[in-house]
Amino acid sequence: MSQDRDVVDPDVDLHVPAHRRELGGRQARVLGVIAVGGALGALARYGVGTLLPTVPGRFPWGTFAINAVGCLLIGVLMVLVTDVFTARPLLRPFLGVGVLGGFTTFSTYANEIRGLLRPGSVPLAFGYLAGMLVCALLAVLLGMVVTRRLLLATRPRVRS
After folding, report:
1. C-alpha torsion angle, residues 97, 99, 102, 103 (rounded to 10)
2. Burial track 122-156 (b if 16+ CB lie within 10 A, e otherwise)
């Protein structure tokens, strides 16, 4: 049996003590908050998916809403972690990678496009493909712009 099967990551060889230490300490905390956040995000996605189930051959409003809201929140989060909560190193992994990574579902989006690529629903598939991409990018931008403006509006003004 090859030793390659024991390697977790091409850059981490668990036979090397220094590499094993790399997986402990701060890395373990980061992985822990990502796991907890991911579970919470996945539960929230399941809840929204239950409220807005996808009907085969129809526009998948549930996934569209989940990804659009998730992208909006990613825009908000990026401003907050870079401008407000800079001293909270676990906030971005917990909320960004964990909660929002578990909530948004671009793999389901891709699978739904594939499912819509059938006679009679091809235009819908391409509309969904383009619409989600445009909406996702605009949602991130909107989240960033609105959050930055709100922060500027609430900061005390210095009078000279």
Report:
1. -130
2. eebbeebbeebeebbeebbebbbeebbeeeeeeee
State the pTM of this model. Answer: 0.79
Residues near 2 by beta carbon (within 8 Å), at least 6 away in sequence = none
Cα 110 to chain centroid distance, Å, stands at: 15
Of 137, 123, 126, 116, whose CA–CA distance to 67 is shortest? 137
The position carrying tokens 């006679």 is: 119
Q: Tens digit of pLDDT per residue, the chain (160 long)?
A: 444 444 345 566 667 777 666 666 677 888 999 999 999 999 999 999 999 998 888 999 999 999 999 999 999 999 999 999 988 889 999 999 999 999 999 999 999 999 999 998 999 999 999 999 999 999 999 999 999 999 988 887 767 6
Q: Which of 68, 17, 24, 23 is nearest to 45 (CA)?
A: 68
Six token digits for residue 4: 């390659």
93 C-beta neighbours (distance < 10 Å), count:
19
What are the tokens at 60?
């998948």
